[in-house]
């Protein structure tokens, strides 16, 4: 019983906050406020990040959390005082995640239901996120250009796109 009381007391000392969305991507990318982080956000610098997304939870009804990471990146930095103009984000999508970029119509034909990622992809594109699909992965999965959500860019390969963005100063983020 003393262990439970001690644990409860320690929990009371933690700065817990609720998850919040926005301000850049309102519906997606929930984040927590962190009081007094030790690593500064360097809000006077540009944040240029390219996310390497090659996996997906499958063709179920769940959104791909790896894609949603881009929304979290935008929201958490904007919530902490970094101007959205200083945030540049790109997603390079390949492998199993390639199908997450299909239009609802094509996704429905292949999987029997709408693409659970389509609203997220549209919100990211509307926020200025660059989304590149690997042409090699798309070709291997018999995905023509017109089957992807409008605004998705096509790259020769994921490797080509990752080098392209890193040569422009984007920092690679891989989960």
Report on this model:
With 175 residues, this protein is of the alpha/beta class. It has a single domain (15-35, 45-174), classed as DsrEFH-like (Hypothetical Protein Ychn, Chain: A). It contains six helices and five strands. It has a five-stranded parallel beta sheet, with helices on both faces.
Task: Quickly describe the structure.
This protein has helices at 2-13, 65-79, 104-111, 118-126, 135-140, 158-167; strands spanning 47-53, 87-93, 130-134, 153-155, 171-174.
In helices, the fraction of residues equals: 25-40%
| Beta-strand content | 5-15%
The CATH H-level superfamily is: DsrEFH-like
Query: The CATH topology is what?
Result: Hypothetical Protein Ychn, Chain: A
CATH class: Alpha Beta
Total domain modules: 1
Question: Which radius of gyration do the C-alpha atoms yield?
Answer: 19 Å
Taken from the alpha-carbon principal axes, the silhouette is globular
Quick one: biggest sheet?
5 strands, parallel
End-to-end gap:
39 Å
In N-to-C order, the SSE pattern is: HEHEHHEHEHE
Q: Taking strands numbered 1, 2, ... along the chain, how are they ordered across the largest sheet?
A: 4-3-2-1-5
Mean pLDDT: 87
Total beta strands: 5
Overall SS class: alpha/beta
Count of discrete alpha- or pi-helical segments spanning 4 or more residues: 6
Parts with pLDDT < 50 across at least 5 consecutive residues? 1-16
The CATH level-2 architecture is identified as 3-Layer(aba) Sandwich
């Amino acid at each position: 019983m003393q262990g439970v009381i001690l644990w409860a007391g320690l929990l009371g000392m933690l700065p817990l906050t609720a998850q919040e969305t926005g301000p850049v991507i309102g519906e997606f990318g929930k984040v927590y406020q962190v009081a007094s982080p030790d690593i500064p956000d360097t809000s006077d610098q540009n944040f240029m990040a390219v996310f390497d997304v090659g996996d997906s939870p499958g063709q179920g009804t769940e959104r791909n959390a790896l894609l949603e990471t881009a929304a979290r990146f935008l929201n958490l930095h904007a919530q902490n005082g970094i101007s959205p103009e200083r945030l540049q984000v790109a997603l390079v999508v390949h492998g199993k995640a390639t199908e997450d970029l299909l239009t609802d119509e094509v996704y429905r034909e292949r999987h029997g239901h709408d693409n659970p990622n389509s609203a997220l992809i549209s919100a990211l594109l509307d926020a200025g996120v660059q989304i590149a699909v690997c042409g090699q992965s798309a070709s291997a999965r018999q995905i023509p250009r017109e089957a992807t959500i409008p605004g998705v860019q096509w790259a020769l390969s994921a490797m080509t796109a990752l080098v392209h963005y890193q040569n422009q100063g984007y920092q690679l983020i891989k989960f």
